[in-house]
Write a structure and sequence with these properties.
Number of strands: 6
Shape: globular
CATH architecture: Roll
CATH class: Alpha Beta
Radius of gyration: 15 Å
Order of helices and strands: HEEEEEEHH
Distance between the termini: 25 Å
Oligomer: single chain
Helix content: 25-40%
CATH topology: Ubiquitin Conjugating Enzyme
Strand order of the largest sheet: 1-2-3-4-6-5
Structural class: alpha+beta
Length: 142
């Protein structure tokens, strides 16, 4: 569960990476808190990311692109794939792998998660151009 101090620190850290109108927290006083962030890639495509915060910061937050992304071959990116750096879909959204499970530490801030997701989105867009798996661009994660 995110504390009030951690919540304020996260907002301040996010403001270093994003304008205030590009992220918003929801349901923070419930057992299912989450946030949404807008990521704009170098090619100017916009993606909305949902970050589930129910176990943050003790556990790595789940991050979803708020739609079902497709591979270059037109397949849904809806299941775990080490080559595509995806995890099991929820909400009908593509879940992306931003940190390896063994790499997660409670002191990692949400702006770092955002930056990793931006890199994933850049790799995804390259995949759409070349057909190469996302791991070609990002390597392997633990």
């Amino acid at each position: 569960m995110i504390t009030a101090n951690r919540y304020r620190a996260e907002i301040n850290a996010l403001r270093l990476s994003l304008p205030s109108n590009m992220f918003k927290f929801f349901d923070m006083d419930t057992d299912k808190p989450y946030m949404k962030m807008v990521a704009v890639t170098n090619s100017k495509n916009m993606y909305t990311l949902r970050v589930d915060l129910d176990r943050f910061p003790e556990e790595m937050p789940k991050v979803f692109v708020t739609k079902m992304l497709k591979s270059k071959r037109g397949e849904d990116l809806d299941s775990p794939s080490s080559s595509m750096h995806t995890l099991q879909s929820e909400y009908g959204f593509t879940r992306i792998c931003h940190y390896g499970f063994s790499s997660w530490r409670p002191n990692i801030a949400l702006n770092k998660v955002y930056l990793k997701c931006r890199v994933w989105l850049e790799a995804y867009e390259e995949h759409l151009k070349t057909g190469k798996a996302i791991k070609y661009y990002l390597g392997e994660q633990e």
